[in-house]
Amino acid sequence: MTTTLLDGKVALVTGGGRGIGAATALRLAADGADVAVTWQRDAERAATVVKQIEALGRRAIAVRADSADPAALREAVDRTADELGRLDILVNNAGAFLVGAIDEFTADDLERTIAVNIRAPFVAAQAAVRHMTAGGRIISIGSNVGERAVFPGLAAYAMSKTALTGLTRGLARELGPRGITVNLVVPGPTDTDANPADGPNADSIRGFTALGRYASPAEIAAMVAHLAGDDTGYVTGAVIAVDGGFTS
């Protein structure tokens, strides 16, 4: 096994069975970490990610957990630490992308948006820090929509992603004395199932970026991996856009 940047580290990526989460899990494994991923609906895709990580010579587990369920999320964190021996890196990636006009948005939609996008990162971090020592990393995945909602129907989603800025800065201040860093990565348009680069609004969305294109999930994962490493030990409380100039 080749020694790499994250050798000996253990990471948990929520929503790691697809999209940015899967790309992040694979990048962390390629950089040397053992990785746990949570999944909710698609066991087969999560199992594929596990096999890909194992093919890199790293250990991996997939844990079924709905991020809207605090007990399930805490169990996923504890299981990661128990089965893989420790926990060094938490990536809060799982998200709920529910859109709709304010006079049509249901109470259930609002509750799930808040539960998955705001409460879950707090709950996961709360559980993770019980296992982390100095050098721990908490990295959340935000959204360019939190900075610039260019289409109607995004108010609840934008609200939920904006809340991650406050969570990141507050936790960075609280956990700094313990040597744990907390940062927020804010992707721009990224080619995923939820927002495919060949989708019906893709041309308009591309036009809002300075680079005129979507990101690949691997490009977002690269920033997460950078923040997970030792070279960024003095970076905390940062909100880092990886958005192709969407908000410039």
Compact summary:
With 248 residues, the protein is α/β, with parallel strands linked by helices. It has seven helices and seven strands; from the N terminus they run βαβαβαβαβαβααβ. The chain has helices at 19-30, 43-55, 70-84, 107-128, 155-175, 202-207, 217-228; strands at 10-13, 34-39, 60-64, 89-92, 137-141, 181-187, 239-242.
Account of the protein in words:
- Strand 2, helix 2 and strand 3 form a beta-alpha-beta unit.
- This protein starts with 9 loop residues before the first strand and ends in a 6-residue tail after the last strand.
- By secondary structure, the chain is of the alpha/beta class.
- The protein is 41% helix and 14% strand.
- The chain has one domain: NAD(P)-binding Rossmann-like Domain (Rossmann fold, 3-Layer(aba) Sandwich).
- One of its GO terms (molecular function) is 3-oxoacyl-[acyl-carrier-protein] reductase (NADPH) activity.
The number of distinct structural domains comes to 1
Element order, helices and strands? EHEHEHEHEHEHHE
Supply the helix-strand structural class: alpha/beta
Largest sheet: 7 strands, parallel
In DSSP terms (H or I, runs of 4 or more residues), the helix count works out at: 7
Strand content: 5-15%
The number of E-state strands comes to: 7
Q: CATH first level: which class?
A: Alpha Beta
Keywords:
alpha/beta; seven-stranded parallel sheet; 7 helices
Give me the secondary-structure topology.
Layout lengths: L9 E4 L5 H12 L3 E6 L3 H13 L4 E5 L5 H15 L4 E4 L14 H22 L8 E5 L13 H21 L5 E7 L14 H6 L9 H12 L10 E4 L6
Parallel strand pairs: 1-2, 1-4, 2-3, 4-5, 5-6, 6-7
